Amino acid sequence: MSVISQNLQAVRQQIAAVADKAQRRADEVTLLAVSKTFGAQEVLAAADTGQRAFGENYLQEALAKMTEVQAARPDLALAWHFIGPIQSNKTRPIAEHFDWVHSVDREKIAQRLSDQRPAQLPPLDICLQVNISGEQSKSGMTPDEALDAAPRIAALPRIRLRGLMAIPEPQDDPALQRAPFRQLRALFDRLNEQGLRLDTLSMGMSGDLEAAVAEGATIVRIGSAIFGARDYAKQ
Ligand SMILES: *Cc1c(COP(=O)(O)O)cnc(C)c1O
């Protein structure tokens, strides 16, 4: 068994165990395999074990990888999620090639993705990225901005607003890890009370997966625990 398939199995077991402890069903949590900086071969190795959803941060790298994977396995239907920072002049290829975008941090980006989503594709599924712990350096809407913009974004014709995403400041202490996830969940509940129909909380990475699942994550974005440490110099 390859290292990637062993890692995937371990991560799936970890998700199942925490979900069980939180009295949730394991199938309420989708595992997004974050393949940034890794190649088509690694994606194919993960796909061989049944993994279908992949997350990417860098547009050019992602498009080249998709082409390579498609050429190697034309039969394979994968879901590609864009999770990186978005420049407004890069929205068109994102709207054309991805199934999901987790990192919508401005209303203008949502508008452009809706305008540019090709008519023959289903609406693009999106999450609003929220800067929940208020760090200066992190991208994301403030909770107040998200409350204000979400109803207008949800009304755009060619995207479907599915939920919220956050990347809290890294914390080693599991007790401290839970607080920002709980805040994101509270914002999600508030938006649904206001009549939106959100079903997605994209939260949790390799280092804080358990805290995120305990607080209600429906998508966890896991990179290094599956593919190993990233080597950015190789890109
Ligand atoms: C890289 C990345 C991940 C995966 O991080 P790991 O710590 O390797 O699991 C998840 N989400 C986002 C937005 C990322 O950029």
TrEMBL record:
Start and end residues of each Alanine racemase N-terminal domain: 7-230
Modified residues (N6-(pyridoxal phosphate)lysine): 36
Cofactor(s) the protein requires to work: pyridoxal 5'-phosphate
Keyword Protein biosynthesis assigned: no
Keyword Membrane (UniProt): no
Matches recorded under InterPro entries: Ala_racemase_N, PLP-binding_barrel, PyrdxlP_homeostasis
Pfam families for this protein: Ala_racemase_N (PF01168)
Gene Ontology MF terms in the entry: pyridoxal phosphate binding
Key words of the record: Pyridoxal phosphate
NCBIfam families given in the database record: YggS family pyridoxal phosphate-dependent enzyme
Protein family: Belongs to the pyridoxal phosphate-binding protein YggS/PROSC family.
Entry function: Pyridoxal 5'-phosphate (PLP)-binding protein, which is involved in PLP homeostasis.
The name this protein goes by in its record: Pyridoxal phosphate homeostasis protein
Source organism: Oxalicibacterium flavum
